[in-house]
Amino acid sequence: MKHSEREQTALTTALQPKCRHCSSPLTLQMIDLGACPPSNALNLSQDCKEQHYPLRVLVCTDCWLAQTDISLFKLDHDELFTKDYPYYSSTSKSWVEHAKKFVEMASDRFMLDMRHLTVEVGSNDGYLLQFVKTRCYGVEPTQTGEKAKEKGIAVYPLFFGSEFAEKQAEKADLMVCNNVLAHVPDINDFVKGFSILLKDSGVATFEFPHLLNLVQKGQFDTIYHEHYSYLSLTAVKRIFESQGLTVFDVEELPTHGGSLRIYASKGFYAPLPSVVAMLEKEGKAGMWTAEFYSDFQKAADKIKNDFMGFLLDAKSMGLKVAGFGAAAKGNTLLNYAGVRSDLLPYVVDNTIAKQGKFLPGSRIPVLPSFPERPDYVVILAWNFKEEIIGKLERLRREGSKFVTVIPRLEIC
Ligand code: JHZ
Q: Which residue from 72, 143, 263, 373 has the highest number of Cβ atoms inside 10 Å of its Cβ?
């Protein structure tokens, strides 16, 4: 059947993916990573069926929100954050320490005590709320919240959004949201929920990996279906303003490859110079131009090819290679590179919920410990490199070497 030119334009417009914040057509592609299963969907057996979904990131050239192209797949929020979601924040000691320091800082800065209420959205296993000295509760849809309950923390086992916020009788003084903003399909409604639940004098803080680092440091492995958005202050500020929230402070953090922590209120706090400084930094880096994103695919391909070169060389020399950290990002790397257990026979992880399972796509087994000393340990969770190398000190003393591939292949 032939379409007229007008029909064809209408058809193309209907199929054109739209920005999840501002609805502008998405025309700029940052990267296409082919197709793979959801990164945290570990398999119970090596031969069970799994569904692969296209994984492509587009950038909105109006509000500069980078986002996975959800027009390519039908994957509901609760199919990604299932009851058996295996990510437990407390597995990393350095992350728990980071949370503790944040709570101490926020209590001092905003003078919080038992008269106040803290709400954490995406409270996981209670890694942060366990340190809070105010009244508090968490909102966590996955079963990781059961661990928080064991610590005596109240948890709503739900997805957060405006509907939840509307139902709460008491408004919050502090709302915390770490590494969750990227995970929500309806980012406008999610942020609206903070606007509703926050007191007029309240503060909401958010941490998220900074898109500036993602692009400049080739962190393509942090792209997976669970992450709907890849965030800059430029995009976040605009989204927040559309929901009545003002970003009044921003800090750079070394966590997860370089993150931002932003502070928002309903206009109670005047913006500090840090906000303009960060916007200028993003502007100077070129984040508001298509060129900034144009070499990203090439950079990812180089990392992938170098990694494959290393694995193939090691195999041909008869050297033993193992992985450490069954991180979601590890699965993006392994699946994009097409690595299977012939090149990486197993990955060790301390998370009980991951042990004995098989990585999505690659079907590489996850073990609780090393069955023998490997010549090389590929640290897939490179964001915890120091902590992991410290933990594996005995292997290093006995001669094992450590490999990271982001931002470039390094062996130490
Ligand atoms: P990790 C996480 O992504 C989760 P992931 C989340 N999707 C997110 O948004 C980003 O961070 C920012 C293991 N480990 O955190 C635990 C040990 O076994 O790098 C984990 O399986 N022993 C919400 O999943 C993995 O490594 C250890 O000593 O890509 C780390 O996963 C340590 C330190 C970690 O990222």
A: 263
